[in-house]
Amino acid sequence: MTIIVTGGAGFIGSCLVERLLAEGQKVLVIDSLWTGSMVNVDKFKGHPNYRFANWDVRNKYPIRETPKQIYHLACPASPDHFGESPIEILETCFRGTQNSLDLAVSCNARVLIASTSEIYGDPRVTPQSEDYWGNTNSFGPRACYDEGKRITEALAYGYQQKHNLEVRIARIFNAYGPSMQLRDGRAVPNFIAAAMEGRPITIYGDGSAGRCFQYVTDCVDGLISLMQSGYTRPVNIGTNAETTVEDLARMIAALVAEKIGSTRKVPIQFFPARTDDPYRRKPDITLAKEVLGWQPRVILRDGLEKTVDWFLQNSGKMPVVKVI
Ligand code: NAD
Q1: Based on the number of CB atoms within 10 Å of its own CB, is 312 exposed (0-12), middle (13-18) or buried (19 or more)?
Q2: Cα–Cα distance between 212 and 280 in angstroms, integer?
Q3: Which atom of ligand 1 is nearest to the CA of 180?
Q4: Which residue from 227, 192, 259, 236 is spatially nearest to 23, judged by alpha carbons?
Q5: Residue 317 pLDDT > 70, yes or no?
Q6: Which residue in 39, 119, 136, 265 has the fewest CB atoms around it within 10 Å?
Q7: Which of these ranges, 61-65, 251-255, 287-291, has the smallest mean pLDDT?
Q8: Ligand 1 pocket: which of 28, 73, 186 to mutate (most atoms <8 Å of CB)?
Q9: Ligand 1 mean position to 170 CA, how many Å?
Q10: What is the residue with the minimal CA distance to atom 41 of ligand 1?
């Protein structure tokens, strides 16, 4: 039976698809290529267990498929899109998630929803455990995503209660790695692009904000473990190894310089912090360790090195992300 991955042409989705195919699963990707790219999935073309449907999840799925599992990842994740397409993001969160949940109900499939650390907003407690209810702003520039993702969780809860549906909720914390779009607006690719192109690295805020960056293969391991588990409430999927944004920028600048053999120092420019950007985001991953037996393994330096190598080899192949 098939496993559906919505958002499978995106950064995390394409890495998940690769893992599922390697495990011998049959995979159908549903993706509108809004923020993802065929470049991420071209490598699967011709694989007997792989199919791709170019479809916007905001529209009811026209497929006659009885999947056993649905990984619902389709949604833009970069803050650059929040200002450009807030309504489309809210629609994707609500209607897109509902369409996946409806399909799951109709064929008795299990659904994993990609939620996010952003549902904690600008948290008042650190680290954030799953029982913290968050501190979000429903009327601000990040609201479409933060509140949209809270809606996806609420929808999943509703379907679990009303239809007895098997749902899994992954609250993903900052993932990074190969297959991100170079210009998608998130810190890691932004910093790598600037360092590769010899431009100053831009930091919003004074650089002291804390983030915990997990390598994408760890994240995918966490998602698969959660899907396979019997646990039906939200679980944080992230690393608790914290770094400041400025330290991240300096690590990336040094790595890129080492790789391209440059001795030129990459300057860092500081701009005012973006509205409602959380100051500290750090997961408590006790629950994931207990119920999934999962924890991240790749340390930041190693993951960044792989990511920089990948961008140096692949940046020429990347299309510019479109606005819808
Ligand atoms: P991404 O932008 O690389 O991938 C998202 C994919 O979904 C893209 O391929 C895009 O084309 C597709 N998509 C978006 N809207 C769609 C729509 N309406 N119909 C069909 N396809 C659509 O982002 P990502 O980083 O891979 O994130 C994947 C999921 O994980 C998202 O739901 C995101 O909210 C969640 N998440 C990611 C992170 C992270 O650090 N990367 C953190 C928390 C949560």
Answers
A1: middle
A2: 9
A3: 3
A4: 227
A5: no
A6: 265
A7: 61-65
A8: 73
A9: 13
A10: 175
Q: Measure 33 CA to ligand 1 centroid, in angstroms.
A: 10
Distance from residue 265's CA to the centre of ligand 1 (Å): 33
State the catalytic residue, choosing from 50, 61, 145, 215.
145
Rounded to 5°, angle at Cα 262 from 261 and 265: 150
Please give the pLDDT value at position 166: 98
Q: Is 24 exposed, middle or buried (0-12, 13-18, 19+ CB in 10 A)?
A: exposed
Cβ neighbours of residue 92 closer than 8 Å, sequence gap 6 or more: 57, 58, 74, 75, 76, 148
User: Tokens representing 115?
Assistant: 């939620």
Tokens representing 123 are: 């948290």
Residue 86's SS3 state is: helix
Q: Which two tokens stand for residue 301?
A: 């330096």
> Quick one: which of 160, 178, 251, 165 has its CA closest to 219?
178
Number of CB atoms found within 10 A of residue 285's CB: 25
Residues with CB under 6 A from ligand 1: 7, 9-13, 31-36, 56-58, 73-77, 92, 96, 114, 116, 172, 174-175
CA 222 vs. chain centroid, Å, equals 12
Q: What is the pLDDT of residues 154-175, one digit of tens each?
A: 999 999 999 999 999 999 999 9
The alpha carbon of 165 is separated from its chain's Cα centroid by a whole number of angstroms, namely 24
CA quadruple 35, 138, 127, 279: dihedral sign: positive
Helical (H) or strand (E) element with 22: helix 11-22
Contact 20, 3 (CB under 8 A): yes
ipTM over 0.90: yes
- Separation between Cα atoms, residue 221 and residue 288, nearest integer Å: 11
C-alpha of residue 77 to centroid of ligand 1, in Å: 5
Amino acid, single-letter form, for residue 143? A
Cβ 66 vs Cβ 107: under 8 Å: yes
145 is catalytic: yes
Alpha carbon distance 191, 50 (integer Å): 33
